[in-house]
Design goal:
- This protein is of the alpha+beta class and 289 residues long.
- The radius of gyration is 21 Å and the shape is globular.
- It has a 4-stranded mixed β-sheet, with helices on both faces.
- Helices cover 68% and strands 8% of the residues.
- The chain has 2 domains: 5-215, no CATH class; 219-288, no CATH class.
- α1 (5-27) packs antiparallel against α2 (34-61) and α7 (135-151) packs antiparallel against α11 (201-215).
Length: 289
């Protein structure tokens, strides 16, 4: 994650640049055939994401290049020219422009540069899902896979094991996903499991869910219950949380038998634990004292 002030400002500028070029990806060709434009736009968003991921991977693997392109004490235009010379012919024009823009900005640490390119890749994919009215689907699939990892420590450890070659971890992930998820969900998860820029896949998914929520200017509440909520209960809970937080809250629910009863609600870093299990644990502590 990018935390330092200078890098946050640079990332905000880079996002604005991304948002100006994304419409061109959707409308460049097949303008007169809406259905074909949708599929072509999706394909070009996904290609852009892969190019940005590849650039980020190269900078992560090449310390001297990362320092040369991320050094704020050198001339910004010179850094941009160097990036263009290195990546021209390796990526498309849109990705090349974004990479040149990225290296010309001021980053608090050279490591923030590849992180920012990864974030842009993620957001290009989320934008494609939003364009196709599939962002809800992608969010839900990410959340449910996060719950699978939470329920299986062995699986999570296997996907996070840095000693295992990235392609083997990708193969394991693909065998789990199959054709069960949207292609954009699969691409986001495949990159997350191979990039090595997040300590765990669970944390990478958490970042993706927050990015998706921010894109639609709402927050996501991840809710664990002992039994599945009805649509009416979900709607009431969303309304209550929206009033509580003063912004729109989108609900993602999962059944977890360890909750026993009540709810465990997580919004960002805040957890509201109203479960029977937590009350029983508190009671045991009291009686033990």
């Amino acid at each position: 994650m990018i935390h330092a002030a200078a890098s946050r400002s640079a990332l905000a500028d880079l996002r604005k640049r991304l948002n100006t070029v994304l419409p061109d990806l959707s409308n460049a060709i097949f303008k007169w055939i809406p259905v074909l434009r949708q599929f072509e736009g999706d394909s070009r968003h996904r290609e852009l994401a892969d190019e940005l991921y590849e650039a980020a991977a190269l900078l992560s693997q090449q310390p001297r290049l990362r320092r040369a392109l991320g050094d704020p004490s050198t001339d910004a235009a010179g850094r941009a020219d160097l990036a263009r010379s290195l990546f021209r012919g390796q990526v498309g024009d849109v990705a090349l422009g974004l990479i040149a823009d990225a290296v010309s900005l001021r980053w608090s640490s050279p490591w923030d540069l590849p992180d920012a390119l990864e974030i842009l890749g993620n957001e290009a994919l989320l934008a494609a899902a939003e364009q196709d009215d599939q962002l809800d689907t992608v969010e839900d699939e990410l959340f449910r896979f996060e719950r699978i990892l939470a329920d299986s420590g062995e699986l999570a450890a296997a996907l996070d094991e840095t000693g295992v070659p990235a392609e083997r971890r990708r193969g394991l992930l693909q065998s789990l996903l199959g054709a069960k998820v949207h292609p954009i969900t699969a691409q986001l998860l495949e990159h997350a499991v191979t990039s090595g820029r997040r300590p765990t896949l669970t944390l990478a998914i958490d970042d993706l869910l927050q990015a998706s929520a921010a894109r639609r200017e709402h927050s996501v509440a991840r809710v664990l219950t002992a039994t599945e909520l009805t649509p009416q209960q979900t709607e009431r809970l969303a309304a209550t949380l929206t009033r509580l937080y003063g912004r729109e809250i989108n609900i993602r629910t999962a059944v977890d038998e360890s909750v026993r009863g009540g709810l465990v609600v997580r919004v960002g870093d805040e957890v509201i634990d109203g479960s029977v299990a937590s009350r029983l644990a508190a009671a045991r502590i009291v009686f033990a004292g």
